[in-house]
Fold these 4 entries.
Entry 1:
Amino acid sequence: MKKNYHFYSVFMICFFVSCANYGDSLLYFNKDAKINGIKTVLYFEPEVFPDITEIKDPTFSAFYNATSDKMRSIGSVKYLQVNTSIPFDEVDSKMIKEICKNNNADVAVIPKVKYFKVGFGKYVFSNQVVVSLKLYDSKGNFVMETSYDTYKGNARLLGSAENSVIIGTKGAIRKMEKELRNRQVILRKAS
């Protein structure tokens, strides 16, 4: 009886407090970070794991569709797409600074999409992803890292891998936007 009660409690919590929030994570935050307004966001091509050529183009397409949709919903922020990948774990801050300067970007986002399979033994139910985003300011300073795990967040077993990338990307951006707003990182410029 206790097990059923526990399941019911978890179900009710997920029902009333969106389960999608369980998939997002704040992995790093620079407490000293301050950004003077954000007018232009630059997104690099995501690093894809596993490194399989056949999945890169659909992943890039799904990732950029999700970022453009999400940025459009934010409003007055300009969105730039850079078709160059930067190794997620070896970010060159000098290069970030230079690319931001050349494109008049206020921040840069370095993404990674990691695929994993959900199933038992040889039976695979679905491809899920963890989308991780690192945010850098225009001076090359590391501001924060967020991620979104589609399996933990949506507990969905059906759907395409492309749809998982879209859901994961939007979830990671939503978490980043929420943390920037709640922690008051963005300084408003005086008009």
Entry 2:
Amino acid sequence: MDAIKTILVREIQQINQQERRDGKARFNTEFFTKHPLLCLAMLAGYVAVGVVMYYAPYMGLGWFAGFTAFLVLVSGGLLLDIKPVYRYEDIGVLDLRVCYNGEWYFSREVPVHAVEEILAHPQVAQPIKARMQEIIRHKGAIDFYDIYDLARKQARQPAPLAASGRQQQPAH
């Protein structure tokens, strides 16, 4: 389990570094560049609502200013992009962190070189290696959760009894 954890942690750190996953909020202009006509339509809708609010006798400038401030605040919040940091400790955890991080460990494939390193590592149990190869044959790749789950199941199994020359008697 320690060898697998070490390899997976290293791969997760490389993914975080390559994708600049630091958990910090950044302004993202991708929406504007990919959907310019939609942005113009939204702006036209804002102007139309603003005109109605300004000229309506029961609203006026105060409501229009409040509407504009609310729209700017919400739009600014929606344009923030946060790339959460992937962590080994989050694999298989189903709590509120999933809302922020997502379940990336189900959709991210472990790089081939890391899989080969795990399969070649002498401290990794043979049943884990065999099951990993079987998963790869069926799915074509293996994700972080598959390896994590295999290692966790192996770690929970009791260690085999040392050969002492006697066989254990079944409990009655």
Entry 3:
Amino acid sequence: MLTSATPTLTDTRTERIIRIVAEHLEVDPAEIGEGDLFVEDHGADSMALIDVLAALEREFRVAIDQEELPKMVDVRGVRAVLDAAPPW
């Protein structure tokens, strides 16, 4: 039985996404909310976002086309792209 203290697969995945984004944007993971915009709220540039994309591919073992970057503006967008990405 799941309790509110038991992490779900989605929570764990979201935490992993936030950890990766935080590392590449050089911010504290606690500062990243699911709806925070990477560029506007955290000052990400295009190179940092490409680094995030590559790290996500390695972490989740998926292939993400760079054309997906415009969708990856926040954690929710990243989750949607990951859900649609083909596995290696």
Entry 4:
Amino acid sequence: MSFRTAVRQSNVLPVATVGAAAWLGLTVLQVVGTMDPLWGGESVGQTAVTGLVGALVIALSIGMLLVFLGELGHSSPGPQTWPPEE
């Protein structure tokens, strides 16, 4: 079963993917809001560097989810029929 077939058969998958992206977006905002200042902050706990790395990883995850949704709309390349028709 391909992703396209799964989406055609289940309307929950795209909604769940968009919901996950929204949840991750809110998590990025929470991480950025709790970060210490870049300069002059404490070196114990959630420092600015760890907050930036965490926000970057979450942003990349959101990007991968958006690419996943974008790929679902493409109709080609599709699987070849079996047995091959000649």
